[in-house]
Amino acid sequence: MGTAPVDWEEARSLVYAAGLAAAPPAVEVPLGETDGHTLAAPLTTLTDLPAFPTSSVDGWAVRGQGPWRVVGRVLAGGTPPPLADDGTTVEIATGAMLPEGATAVLRVEESSRTGDGLVSGTPRAQAEWRAPGEEARRGEALMPAGSPVNPGVIGLAASCGYDTLPVRRPPRAALLVFGDELLTAGLPGAGRVRDALGTPVPAWLRRYGAEPGHLHGPVEDTLPAHVDAIRKAIEGADLICTTGGTMHGPVDHLHPALAELGAEYVVNTVAVRPGFPMLVARIPGPDGRPRFLAGLPGNPQSAIVALVSLVAPLLAGLQGRPSPVLPCVTLAEAVPGRGDFTHLALVRVDPVDGTAHPVRHVGSAMLRGLAQSDGFAVIRPGTSGEPGAQVPLVPLPLLNGERP
Fold it and tell me: Where do the MoaB/Mog domain residues begin and end (predicted)?
């Protein structure tokens, strides 16, 4: 692939397709260990939900008209005998199985006892039990393949009768920080600046569903050091993110290192501002399985633009999740275009009316605006964002890929 910038939307489609083609096969994982994984098949219930009629209140399961003679008690987990005769009742607990023959459930707080021990009261017109299949019928698909597994999904799967789930594991990610000018501790000074990406990028990767691992840097600004660092990272990662070195300056060794490693570009520069010198390359792994390298620009905000632009759809593909669909927001203020480039503009979204407000401090090297934002408004090439215009939003993720 040449170095002509790729259209932003096309670039996202290309990296998603590449990730999806390289998605690992499904594995069966014990249910309690599936949090953060991705469903590799639809979640279909193995039984009716509920599987049998259950009382939704504490009270009395009655047959026929009252008052009723008490003939037993039913607790959750038991199998009651049928109520065979009119005018009889059993005490029943919430969640207990409704006995065959019961015609109503009388709430305990709406019942009373007669002097001779009979139960009296008026059952409500609405049934006070859950019917079999009320929530779902056996074989019904409840969650599609590609859904992130979270505690809610785990609980649903347990109620459906699952002990294991077919899932795709989170991709393993590594981070290589390039740049001799970077400090990893202390105050900036004497021409050196703090590394503002080595610490937050793993957190972003985790929010996109990856499992961050190896972190190395700053890597020495030499070609052999770059090649060696990438080669080592490939051994334990599905995705390697690098920061800096995506241009062709005197100490930018990423492109020569990729050439030496036999890499193939999926995307090499994107027509987006800020952050256009971003890239994704496919590298042959030692086991024959491809690995991916995402080259993030060195300027901090540009690096995050590369993450939301390319890394998010790539990771979605690697997990077998759907390609991210962007919601729309209404611009509260004007946002300028960037000519033939897509403009990703940081905005804060009003939680009341959903309007998007541009924020300040949004230079490529700045992070103050990012820390105050909810996402990037997308201003397409050849346009400008006028107040009241509906534009796509790339939301910043909250937790584990659930807000792509």
Answer: 174-317
pLDDT of residue 402: 44
Query: How many other CB atoms are there within 10 angstroms of residue 389's CB atom?
Result: 17
Q: Output the DSSP codes for 217-265.
A: EEEPSSHHHHHHHHHHHHTT-SEEEEES--S-STT--HHHHHHHTT-EE
- Over residues 152-178, the pLDDT tens digits come to 999 999 999 999 999 999 999 999 988
Q: Which residues contact 189 (CB under 8 A, 6 or more apart)?
A: none
For residue 27, the number of C-alpha atoms closer than 13 Å in the C-beta half-sphere is: 11
Q: Label residue 250 by pLDDT band (50, 70, 90).
A: confident
Q: Which of 346, 254, 238, 223 is nearest to 289 (CA)?
A: 238
What average pLDDT does the chain have?
A: 91
> 197: number of CA atoms within 13 Å, CB side?
31
**Can you say whether the dihedral through the CA atoms of 17, 22, 28, 30 is positive or negative?**
negative
Phi, psi of 129 (to 5 degrees): -140, 160
**Residues 336-384: pLDDT tens digits?**
999 999 999 999 999 999 999 999 877 776 678 788 889 999 999 999 9
Of the candidates 302, 312, 272, the one whose C-alpha atom is nearest the C-alpha of residue 16 is: 312
Q: What is the mean pLDDT of residues 120-144?
A: 95
User: CB 27: neighbour CB atoms within 10 A?
Assistant: 13
Is residue 305 within 8 A of residue 275, CB to CB? The reply is yes
Amino acid (1-letter code) at residue 133 = G
Structural domains in the chain, CATH included, are: 6-24+170-318 (3.40.980.10), 34-43+139-168 (no CATH), 54-130 (2.170.190.11), 328-395 (2.40.340.10)
> Radius of gyration of the chain from Cα atoms?
29
Residue 115 DSSP class: T
Tokens of 25: 């096969």
**Phi, psi of 204, deg, nearest 5:** -65, -45
pLDDT for 183: 52
3-state secondary structure at position 306: helix
233, 248, 291 from 230: Cα distances, Å: 5, 18, 11
Task: Check residue 149 and report its DSSP letter.
Answer: P
- Report how far residue 108's alpha carbon sits from residue 61's, in angstroms, rounded to the nearest whole number: 10
Q: What's the rounded Cα separation, in Å, for the pair 335 and 109?
A: 61
